[in-house]
Specification:
Aspartate Aminotransferase, domain 2; seven-stranded mixed sheet; Aspartate Aminotransferase, domain 1; alpha/beta; three-stranded antiparallel sheet; 15 helices; binds 4'-deoxy-4'-aminopyridoxal-5'-phosphate; 373 residues
């Protein structure tokens, strides 16, 4: 039986060209710290990938630090500022790698559609009497909601607040120009853009601003990543990340066309179930994501029914699914548990087709009619 994977915000299917690059690099015992020929080859592969990522995101390659993924990137940035006793302001709709890392986060609210409440943010930042860091998710992993980054940055700059963006779900979905964003740090991960798992990066603006801090060494030991992150770099994963980034940027408009499939799903679901609630519908959203609740049918019931038909979707973020915990993100948007507990996230990817969507809708309708009857 055919398997349909609509859980691409959890992780993505690697593109064949990316897999080729990874597999090729795996044929060699690459350690970029070695001075011999194979070591120098590894160094070249890593620096080529770093340059591709820098060019793709309009960042300086010197200011890209490879990590094991976005959890490490987020934790590293937050630990630096948390340890220095900065006020850390964030939203209720962040990824667990942000929200559960912080000891005393100051929460700035979001509106019902998931967008940051700009007036509340302005007020909270204006009340700070010590240096602060604002950390927020650019494209939400559960709802696809895209924050109005320009307006947020404008407010934060009034108060000399350092800004970190969790841009993990933004790459390949919307244009990400690091210099234009004018923020201090972003976190990114390869496995959300059809690259391999276990590799991510921090991009910094180089700490030119007043109050900014150099990142603390999170991993100590060797001098890799210009002394900023110890441990042998994985040339194969980094090469794959570089290729995935190149393709994500090249294929951006194709990815944005997924909105046609996403809209078809939403229209049909609303036709079958007018009581359905689509989270963040009035906000700008990434093209591939819909988070939809059918009040009265628990998320887990829907998930299992679809899984039995070989359709993979998720409830809430993958990091908290597998449990029946109510989505923190949807609660943060003001959703009542009766509704948020009935939400599933459908997230399409580069491989998704109209045929898959039609099949999904057919199965979804069958599931809905069965449960309702
Ligand atoms: N931030 C966001 C928005 C994410 O979606 C994820 C992955 N679920 C992470 C951070 C953590 O990324 P990683 O899996 O690379 O640690």
């Amino acid at each position: 039986m055919k398997r349909i994977y609509f859980d691409c915000n959890a992780t993505t299917l690697m593109k064949p060209a990316v897999k080729d690059v990874v597999m090729k690099a795996m044929d060699y015992p690459y350690n970029a710290s070695s001075t011999h020929k194979i070591g120098r080859e590894a160094r070249r592969i890593i620096e080529d990938a770093r340059n591709i990522i820098a060019e793709s995101l309009n960042a300086e390659s010197n200011n890209i630090i490879f990590t094991s993924g976005a959890t490490e990137s987020n934790n590293t940035i937050l630990s630096t500022f948390q340890n220095a006793n900065y006020d850390i302001i964030t939203t209720p709709t962040e990824h667990p790698s942000i929200i559960y890392y912080l000891k005393e986060p100051i929460i700035t609210p979001v509106l019902d559609n998931g967008l940051i409440d700009l007036d509340a943010l302005d007020k909270i930042l204006s009340e700070r009497d010590k240096p602060s860091l604002l950390s927020f998710i650019l494209v939400n992993n559960e709802t696809g909601v895209i924050q109005p980054v320009e307006e947020i940055v404008k407010i934060a700059k009034k108060y000399k607040t350092i800004i970190h963006l969790d841009a993990v779900q933004a790459i390949g979905k919307i244009e990400v120009d690091f210099k234009k964003l004018d923020v201090d740090f972003i976190s990114i991960a390869s496995h959300k853009i059809a690259g391999p798992q276990g590799i991510g990066a921090i991009i910094t603006a180089g700490c030119k601003k007043e109050y900014c801090l150099d990142l603390d060494l999170y991993f100590k030991g060797g001098q890799q990543e210009k002394n900023r992150r110890a441990g042998t770099e994985s040339a194969a994963l980094i090469a794959g990340f570089g290729k995935a980034m190149e393709l994500a940027v090249k294929d951006l408009s194709k990815f944005q066309d997924l909105s046609k499939l996403r809209d078809k799903i939403e229209t049909k679901i609303l036709e079958i179930a007018p009581e359905a609630v689509i989270f963040g519908k009035t906000a700008p959203r990434s093209s591939n994501t819909t988070c939809v609740a059918i009040p009265g049918i628990a998320s887990m019931t829907q998930l299992i029914a679809l899984d039995l038909e070989n359709i993979c979707v998720s409830s809430g973020s993958a990091c908290s699914s597998g449990t029946s915990v109510i989505s923190r993100v949807l609660s943060g948007m003001g959703a009542h548990e009766d509704v948020s507990g009935c939400a599933i996230r459908i997230s399409l990817g580069w491989q998704s087709t109209i045929e898959e969507v039609d099949y999904f809708l057919q199965i979804w309708q069958k599931m809905y009619n069965h449960i309702k009857s």
